[in-house]
Structure formats: C-alpha cells, structure tokens
C-alpha cells in the first residue's frame, strides 16, 4: 500500500516498512515531517520527535489536525497514506522541472481498454484500507462488499467530480418567466396578494418535487449500474476461468 509512495520519496526502506510496528510507524512520521512536509518550524517539532514519549499519540493527533487531515490517529493506515500523498505533492512542487519531462512507461497493450477492477484483489488488506479511505473522504456509506463500495466511488467521481460535472454544476441556472395567471390556485384567500404568494409557493414546491424525482432517478440508475455488473453481482458472472 505504501511502497510506491515511499520509493518515490526516497525512503530508506520502502519494502520493509511495517505500519503496524509502533517504532517504524513513529519514525516514518517524524521523517516525513522533517524531510518532506515541514509544516512545523524546527523548534516546534519536539513533541513529534520524542518518539519514546507516552504522550506521542496526542502529539500525532494534533499534527494531523494542524494539517487538516481527514483521518484521526486511530485510523493509522489511512492517515499514513494521506500523509504520504501530501509529501509526494510537496516533493513534486519542489522539483517541478525535474519531473516535468518524465515519460510514462510504454505499455504493450496501451491500445486495449481494460477495466482496472478486473485485476484487483478485493481480499487484500491494502485494497480494503484504500477503499475505506476513499469512502471516508467522499462521505460514502460503508458496505460489506468492498468492490461495491469502489464501484460507488467511481460513479460518484465520474458524475460529480469530473471536470465536466464540475463545469456543469458551476453554470448558473437561468430562470424562465412564468405567468401566474396561467396557474389556477383552486381556492381564494380573499386577498390578491396572498393569492399570488400561494401561487408562487405552489410553483416552488413543484420545482422541488421535480428536482427530488431527478435525484431519485439518478440514484436508481447508479444502484442498477452497480448490481448489474458481473464483478459485483455473482448471478451475472461465473467463477473461475
């Protein structure tokens, strides 16, 4: 889960790092702050550098809060992965020219579109931790099937967080003029002003109902896209080759 990011950051032992080992974990956090992130001034890193201290966990929790990390100290894997991602971004920002001309490795099957979900090991602890971290960031409800959760994450990103979706959401909606005379209220309050206000409220309510129906339809389509996938619905696929 961490090897590639640690390797990119020139960590001394990316293959041997064990997040569950308390000493390795604390040393890695201190190394990230000292060498890559550098959020604190040197004189303010004392509590974090005091690795044997019984109060280190509190210092780490405060560190995460100061960085606005979405994970707490108890979510160790997710927090480490987030910190590594932050460090990679800082490393790139400090060496833009160095990485600007880097070319991606050529792939012999680059012309074939392959669903990345097909090659994932859904039982891997790293896979589960990564999906859980994404679900927490995107506020997606957890599910017992991690592939279902990953599919929901992909749908959310494609429909809500893609450049096209963001552009569409940022576009202001232009209102359409409506003639109140064409919409019969069905009752009379005895006051022309109140009658007009009631007509406006009714039209606004109808608009809200239409928006709600649209969201319901989108949710139904999203759920159908998940359960109709052979990868997430065993009834549509077959086991083995």
Automatic annotation (TrEMBL):
One of its GO terms (biological process) is tRNA splicing, via endonucleolytic cleavage and ligation. This is RNA transcription, translation and transport factor protein. PANTHER family: CLE. It holds the Pfam family RLL. Belongs to the RTRAF family. GO terms for molecular function: RNA binding. It comes from the Eukaryota. InterPro entries: RTRAF. It comes from Oryzias latipes (Japanese rice fish).
């Amino acid at each position: 889960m961490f090897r590639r990011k640690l390797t990119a950051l020139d960590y001394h032992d990316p293959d041997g790092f064990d997040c569950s080992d308390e000493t390795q974990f604390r040393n890695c956090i201190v190394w990230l702050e000292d060498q890559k992130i550098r959020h604190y001034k040197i004189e303010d890193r004392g509590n974090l550098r005091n690795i044997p201290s019984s109060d280190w966990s509190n210092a780490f929790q405060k560190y995460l809060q100061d960085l606005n990390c979405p994970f707490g100290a108890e979510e160790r894997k997710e927090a480490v992965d987030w910190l590594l991602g932050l460090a990679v971004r800082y490393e790139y920002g400090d060496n833009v020219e160095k990485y600007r001309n880097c070319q991606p490795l050529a792939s012999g099957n680059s012309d074939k579109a392959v669903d990345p979900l097909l090659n994932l090991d859904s039982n891997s602890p790293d896979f589960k931790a990564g999906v859980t971290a994404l679900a927490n960031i995107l506020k997606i409800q957890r599910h017992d099937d991690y592939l279902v959760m990953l599919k929901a994450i992909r749908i959310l990103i494609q429909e809500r967080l893609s450049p096209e979706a963001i552009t569409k959401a940022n576009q202001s909606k232009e209102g359409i003029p409506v003639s109140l005379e064409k919409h019969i209220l069905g009752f009379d309050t005895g006051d022309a002003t109140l009658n007009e206000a009631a007509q406006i409220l009714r039209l606004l309510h109808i608009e809200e109902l239409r928006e709600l129906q649209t969201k319901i339809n989108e949710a139904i389509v999203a759920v159908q896209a998940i359960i109709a996938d052979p990868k997430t619905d065993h009834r549509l696929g077959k086991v083995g080759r």
